[in-house]
Amino acid sequence: MQRLEWRRFEGVVAAYFRASGYQTKSCNLGADGGIDIYLYRNNELEALVQCKAWSKTLVGVKETREFFGVLTLHRVKLGFLITSGRFSLDAINLARQIRNQGKCRLDLVTGERFLGFISQLSANQQNKLLEFATDGDYSTPTCPHCGIKMVRRSSKSNGGVFWGCRNYLRCHQILH
Known about the structure:
The chain is of the alpha/beta class and 176 residues long. It contains 5 helices and 8 strands, in the order αβββαβαβααβββ. The strands form 2 sheets. Strands 1-2-3-4-5 form a 5-stranded mixed beta sheet, with helices on both faces. It has a 3-stranded antiparallel beta sheet with strand order 6-7-8, with no helix packed on it.
């Protein structure tokens, strides 16, 4: 799970929810307004999903608060903030506080817990999800602006390594 690049991670999350009976609508590239996936049942919006493919960095209270704001803005009572990694203690406490106040159900899902969700699917559904997750180049990041695979580059100023868009000069997106 932690080796999946961000766009593939979002695709796997959407595929999981489809296998679980939801209709899904994924957001396009670019600014997504804090929503990666809309979840519907019987054509009614039921939940929103924000994905963070962060295996080395904890998802913090800032991201959790922002997602709660998105849920409130859209008047949605169920939200899934899903990461390939883990959440900070402050983020966990904020989500608990939001639930206890009855404002909405903000479900923080770690990578480990998400794998547990997948294990509840049928063997056939699990195999399809694994095939999708590992098909082709699943670890090279996708440019959030152009939608193409990025390339590993070195900084001329400090020698640091980063991912840069193949369309450099037209697109200046980088990922560290």
